[in-house]
Design a protein that fits this description.
Blueprint (H helix, E strand, L loop, with lengths): L1 H40 L3 H13 L2 E4 L2 E5 L3 E5 L2 E4 L2 E7 L2 E7 L9 E15 L7 E13 L4 E11 L2 E10 L23 H11 L2 E2 L4 E9 L7 E14 L2 E17 L2 E16 L2 E14 L4 E18 L4 E18 L4 E15 L3 E13 L19 E13 L4 E12 L2 E11 L2 E10 L4 E8 L12 H7 L2 E3 L4 E9 L10 H4 L5 E13 L2 E13 L2 E11 L2 E10 L4 E8 L12 H9 E3 L4 E9 L2 E18 L2 E13 L2 E11 L2 E11 L4 E9 L3 H8 L1 H7 L2 E3 L4 E9 L2 E18 L2 E14 L1 E11 L3 E11 L5 E13 H6 L8 E14 L7 E12 L10 H7 L8 E11 L2 E10 L3 E10 L4 E9 L7 H7 L1 H6 L1 E6 L4 E5 L7 H4 L1 H8 L7 H4 L11
Parallel strand pairs: 10-12
Antiparallel strand pairs: 1-4, 2-3, 3-6, 4-5, 5-7, 6-7, 7-8, 8-9, 9-10, 11-13, 12-13, 13-14, 14-15, 15-16, 16-17, 17-18, 18-19, 19-20, 20-21, 21-22, 22-23, 23-24, 24-25, 25-27, 26-28, 27-28, 28-29, 29-30, 30-31, 31-32, 32-34, 33-35, 34-35, 35-36, 36-37, 37-38, 38-39, 39-41, 40-42, 41-42, ...
């Protein structure tokens, strides 16, 4: 029984074992089959359908073509598609997804995803609710791991977006907390729709970018999803070739961004942005080799600080105002600064340093520029009645700057150094320091402008040569400045005030709007300079400009010979200028300031020592040719041509190129000249003299008047200086324009044969005529002369003249001795001589007439008169040498031939009559007749009649010269001449001069000359 039971137990045991084995093998088969099926074929439909349905109920629409298991814990999903059920536009599709599961979590009934990878994916994200706009990522490749501590690690996520290559890497702890981010939260007022505004903004911005070559966008992040602000992110965009944007274009653009909140000295650092480009072009300018670094700090809850560093090999900025387009640029540019803003991006302050080389702007260029700039927003209000115009946007800002430039050049200037510091706080713009080094000089300036009132003031110190910046002045200022020169630039210090125009542009009329408001004062010091070639040693002055008028009250100028003190007023409105001059310099130094006619006069004046002058000058626009002048002059050691003066004192005026002298006193030793009024007209070179009294030698004065006048006057000589009274006018070296009148009183006068002990007369020089009238002279031992002379001064052929002289009681011996005659001559001569037409160079055509009368004369030693003396002395000794009681004759001169038909000499022994001519060569052609005893008492006439035949024997024809006359009888035939030559025969019977005849000659009368 027991055996049976054992057998039955054993049989049952084998059956159970067999079926258990079969079940186990079948279960193993089913397991292997299920594994092989899931691995090779995929998840069966009875599993797939409930799973998808459960996901759809959870709000996710998931589809896939197949899901296969890969040993040991990988799930391979083919053609997955994922979308939110409430938004059909948001979906993800892909080629394959490999999912790694943590099977150990299955025991806890929590199947955890360990990692998954994604290939050939496509992401469609809605970004607009109205026009179905989406953001699409294609060719998505991803490798993502999820650790047990809820950490998401993206080892590699690559995609293509709108032609760009996108790569994402990062790690995120507490990743499930990301579902609470704003990006995934429902929008306010809606349900189950994510907030995609950021994505939309990104997509719209990206759509505006045009890349020549596909760019690369790399994003890396790390952080805790439960603390979004603590997440660190780095973005790197590389766009090779050219990138076009609405804001500009760039070549080889690189953008780098880091988001990392950390505490620093400057505050909490939030983000660091950097960018670079080989070339950048925008509407604001261009740049080459450009690098930009931006660091964002959160200083307080509401304030953000941005540090900016910009570097560029070449940068140029452009901007356009209402009138023109301006630019600034340079090489090796560096900007380092910061901007402080509120959370609403409202700037509160900014500061920075700018450095660049070869800076170039619309107005000029600089080799180097360094600038420190700072602006701060302040609380300010604009008065309602103030027109701020251009300045209104700057009212709420305070600014400070420090700018330094080296080697600056502009179209009109070149500066070695320019340094400017200043500040702005409405309404005051201040320049605390503006220093410039240029053209071996410097300018230092400071000033300020009140933009509300437009009042400006400034101070300046300069040792710059103004000639080198003359191009900044208007043409009138340049012409005026060219008149000055200097060896060393003047030192100038000035202060100025002015009211600026409401608007400053190309239409601003500075001359009428601004210049009348300018007030300027200052000082000037100059060494070794000149004005229109008038050189000076030093110049010092103060000056004031106001109401468009220059006032220079104390201009002190030194020259080697003296000083000049000037008080000047220049009215720019009218051009009228006023000079007050106190001078002790040589006036010839001012020669270039006068017209050429006046300069020629200056050249003829010699000054031994500088005169003392006080003058008032009025002129217009520095035209000294038409200036007005009054002056007191005291000078010594002067010379003009042959006129020399020891002292000259006068009051003079100059107006309309006419120089006038009043109350003039001139001295040369004991001699003097006084003149009530004299004028020199430089327009015509005319000289006018009034109330002149002179005791000086007249000939130098006449030579100063003109050579021809001097030549005409020269025959009339005073050996003692006469007293002369003068009135009239003349033109230098033009005697034909003269109108001069002289009254002359003098002694020891000589005029040709006339030698007077005393002579008075009046001289009138009118045009080319010289009239000497009212001649009264004492000469020849009590002789009195009266008459006149008229001379016409011809330009080329000598001088025409006329003479009328009457003389009485003139000693014959003294008169003829002046002619060089040494004969024994005695008697008193009266007469009159009139030359009606004569010329100094044509002695062959003189015309005239006259008469002579001799009383108690002895004239027989004159050969022409003594031809009968030997005969008469032979007949009756002494009768041929008896005195002539009277001799008279009238004469007529024609073509320089003097003719007389009534020359008669009366003496007790004989009366001699002459009829004939004599010329200027003393050649005689006359008939002489002797009437013996014609004047011998009361019977002389009867005796003369009785002796008439004998008288005919004494009628002879005279030829030859006055000194050697030749005589021949008129009525004796030549054939009988040798027989009847009475003179020849008589001469032979005359005793020898050494014989007895000489003893009967009358004694010689000694002729004494007047002492």
């Amino acid at each position: 029984m027991a055996e049976t039971r054992f057998k039955q137990f054993w049989k049952l045991s084998r059956r159970i074992f067999r079926w258990t084995r079969i079940v186990l093998l079948f279960a193993l088969f089913l397991g292997v089959f299920a594994v092989v099926y899931v691995h090779e074929i995929g998840v069966p439909g009875f599993v797939k359908r409930p799973l998808l349905k459960k996901l759809q109920q959870a709000g996710f629409n998931v589809q896939f073509s197949n899901a296969r298991w890969s040993w040991p814990n990988h799930l391979h999903i083919e053609n997955p598609a994922f979308a939110e059920t409430n938004d059909s536009s948001l979906h993800i599709t892909g080629g394959t997804v490999d999912v790694s599961l943590d099977l150990s979590s299955a025991a806890k009934k929590q199947l955890r995803l360990e990692s998954f990878s994604f290939t050939d994916g496509r992401l469609v994200l809605p970004i607009s609710e109205t026009n179905n706009e989406t953001l699409i990522l294609t060719n998505v490749q991803a490798a993502i791991r999820l650790s047990a501590n809820n950490t998401l690690r993206i080892d590699k996520l690559g995609a293509q977006f709108d032609g760009a290559n996108v790569q994402l890497d990062g790690i995120l702890t507490n990743c499930t907390a990301a579902l609470d981010w704003e990006l995934f939260k429902a929008r306010k007022g809606t349900t189950n729709k994510p907030n995609t505004s950021f994505v939309r903004q990104f997509s719209e911005t990206w759509a505006k970018l045009k890349f020549t070559k596909a760019p690369d966008l790399a994003i890396k992040f790390s952080g805790d999803a439960a603390d979004p602000d603590g997440i660190k992110a780095a973005v790197n965009l590389i766009a090779k070739a050219r990138t076009e944007t609405p804001w500009g274009a760039a070549d080889n653009l690189q953008l780098r961004g880091n988001y990392d909140k950390q505490t620093t000295i400057a505050g909490k650092q939030v983000a660091v942005l950097a960018g670079s480009a080989d070339y950048l072009e925008t509407s604001y300018g261009t740049g080459r080799k450009l690098d930009v670094g931006i660091t964002l700090f959160s200083e307080t809850t509401n304030l953000w600080r941005t540090e900016i560093v910009l570097e560029s090999k070449n940068l140029q900025a452009n901007w356009t105002n209402s009138s023109a387009t301006n630019s600034i640029g340079g090489t090796d540019v560096r900007w380092k600064g910061h901007v402080l803003c509120t959370s609403g991006l409202k700037m509160q302050s900014a500061a920075g340093k700018l450095q660049l080389l070869s800076a170039e702007t619309t107005w000029g260029r600089a080799q180097q520029l360094n600038a420190d700039l700072k602006i701060v927003r302040i609380a300010n209000s604009v008065p309602a009645d103030t027109k701020w115009d251009f300045w209104k946007p700057f009212v709420y800002w305070k600014a400070d700057w420090d700018i330094d430039l080296r080697n600056v050049t502009t179209p009109k200037l070149a500066m070695q150094h320019l340094h400017c510091t200043g500040d702005w706080k409405a309404p005051q713009l201040s320049i605390s320091k503006l220093e410039s080094e240029l053209y071996d000089g410097s300018v230092k300036l400071n000033g300020e402008v009140n933009v509300a009132t437009r009042d400006a003031n400034a101070k300046m110190i300069s040792d710059l040569d103004p000639q080198k910046i003359a191009s900044l002045l208007p043409q009138s200022g340049q012409r005026w400045l060219k008149k000055f020169t200097w060896e060393k630039a003047p030192h100038i210090s000035t202060e100025a005030r002015v009211t600026l125009p409401a608007q400053i542009n190309s239409k601003t009329d500075w001359k009428t709007e601004v210049l009348p408001t300018l007030y300027l004062t200052g000082k000037l010091a100059l060494e070794a300079g000149s004005y229109q070639t008038v050189s000076v040693l030093t110049t010092q002055t103060e000056f004031v400009y106001s109401n468009m008028t220059w006032r220079i009250p104390n201009l002190h100028i030194t020259r080697p010979e003296g000083v000049v003190d000037l008080n000047l007023n220049f009215d720019k409105r009218t051009g009228e200028n006023h000079w007050i001059v106190d001078s002790s310099i040589d006036p010839k130094a001012l020669r270039p300031l006068f017209p050429e006619a006046a300069q020629a006069t200056f050249d003829k004046v010699l000054i031994g020592g500088p005169p003392v002058i006080h003058a008032d000058i009025f002129e217009h626009d520095f035209d000294f040719a038409n200036c007005g002048l009054t002056a007191n002059v005291l000078a010594t050691n002067l010379a003009y041509r042959e006129i020399k003066l020891d002292r000259l004192k006068t009051f003079l005026t100059f107006s309309n190129s006419v120089l006038s002298f009043f109350d003039t006193e001139a001295e040369d030793g004991a001699k003097e000249v006084r003149c009530g009024n004299a004028e020199i007209d430089f327009n015509t070179a005319k000289v006018s003299l009034h109330e002149v009294y002179s005791t000086m030698e007249p000939m130098p004065i006449t030579r100063a008047i003109g050579r021809k006048v001097a030549a005409a006057i020269e025959p009339y000589q005073f050996h003692k200086t006469p007293t002369v009274y003068v009135e009239g006018s003349f033109v230098f070296d033009h005697p034909e324009t003269g109108d001069m009148h002289f009254i002359v009183e003098g002694e020891e006068f000589e005029w040709g044969v006339l030698k007077a002990t005393k002579a008075n007369g009046k001289v009138d020089w009118i045009g080319t005529n010289l009239y000497i009238t009212n001649i009264v002279a004492n000469a020849y031992r009590g002789g009195e002369f009266e008459g006149w002379v008229a001379v016409n001064i011809r330009p080329h052929s000598g001088n025409d003249f006329q003479i009328a002289i009457t003389f009485t009681n003139a000693d014959l011996q003294m008169g003829l001795s002046s002619l060089g005659k040494t004969n024994r001559l005695e008697g008193t001569l009266n007469g009159k001589v009139n030359l009606t037409a004569a010329n100094t160079q044509d002695r062959d055509h003189w015309e005239g007439f006259g008469w002579m009368q001799l009383q108690n004369g002895f004239i027989w030693e004159v050969p022409v008169f003594g031809i009968f003396s030997p005969v008469l002395n032979t007949i009756a000794p002494g009768t041929g040498n008896s005195r002539a009681g009277e001799a008279s004759a009238s004469f007529l001169m024609t073509n320089s031939l003097i003719r007389s038909d009534d020359l008669e000499i009366r003496s007790p022994a004989v009366r001699i009559n002459y009829r004939g001519t004599v010329d200027f060569n003393q050649q005689v052609d006359a008939i002489v007749e002797a009437q013996v005893l014609r004047d011998a008492g009361s019977l002389g006439h009867l005796f003369s009649i009785a002796m008439q035949p004998l008288t005919k024997l004494f009628e002879y024809k005279l030829t030859g010269s006055l000194e050697d006359p030749k005589s021949e009888p008129v009525f004796i035939p030549k054939i009988l001449l040798n027989l009847l030559r009475p003179f020849h025969s008589l001469k032979r019977i005359l005793p020898d001069k050494s014989g007895a005849a000489s003893e009967t000659a009358p004694p010689t009368v000694e002729v004494k000359t007047e002492p």
